[in-house]
Amino acid sequence: MSDAFKSVKIDTENHGGDNIKEKILVMSGKGGVGKSTFAANLALSLALKDKEVGLLDIDMHGPSIPRILGMLGEKVYGQEKAIVPTKYRKNFKVMSVGFFTEVEDAIIWRGPMKHNVIKQFINDVVWDNLDYMVIDSPPGTGDEPLSIAQLLGKGTKVIVVTTPQDLALADVRKSINFCKQMSLEVLGVVENMSGFVCPHCGTLTEIFKSGGGEKMAKEMNVPFLGKIPIDPKVVEYSDAGKPYIEAVRDSETAKALDKILSQFAV
Description:
The protein is α/β, with parallel strands linked by helices and 266 residues long. The protein has helices at 3-7, 35-48, 65-68, 111-123, 143-152, 166-181, 212-220, 232-239, 244-247, 252-261; strands spanning 20-28, 53-57, 77-79, 82-84, 86-89, 92-96, 130-136, 156-162, 185-197, 204-205, 224-230.
């Protein structure tokens, strides 16, 4: 693990988030729904609109953001009692535990350690003034989302990502109930992998069915932000470290994300 990370003292008196206008926590009830890919492309979309954006990856055990953004091998460094984040572009800063570890490293931390690291990522990283901070949280309602909700406090908003299957939707309800108990505003639900748009003829095929997320959002009395279809190129470009919002800008997937973004980004 990086010496820069070990050497920075945690400021327990400083409450993070004061220099951030909008804080958006991306959650999912279970893994494998494309949450990290959505979070990375959401943050980049905001940056492409000339906003000052920070992307914070708090998935301690499976950080995906460095790979999705093509930043594997990037390092951060310490500056006195602060950590300087990496930059994907001038107005887009990124922080992840993945910058301090090797890909094969197993992070074996209990809750208090994870809480302290997340606190450090909020309080001691040189974020400067941000229009948006997007936080990629691990699946579920465990230590990491609880810590970030407590540390960022009031004003934190949540987008919950799901797929159309009933198995995924059952767990999403738990995420929404978590938000209600923590007094977090739910910006809405996104139904990912919702149908497959043929790249040749444009026909939509509902491989995993569709509409479950919208129905669930209505039942839970939270907004439904939209559906994002499956696109094989998303997987291809994500593995190659090329966010689809740049690589395939005119795809139906990118257009769906733009439509979602237009509902809350100013």
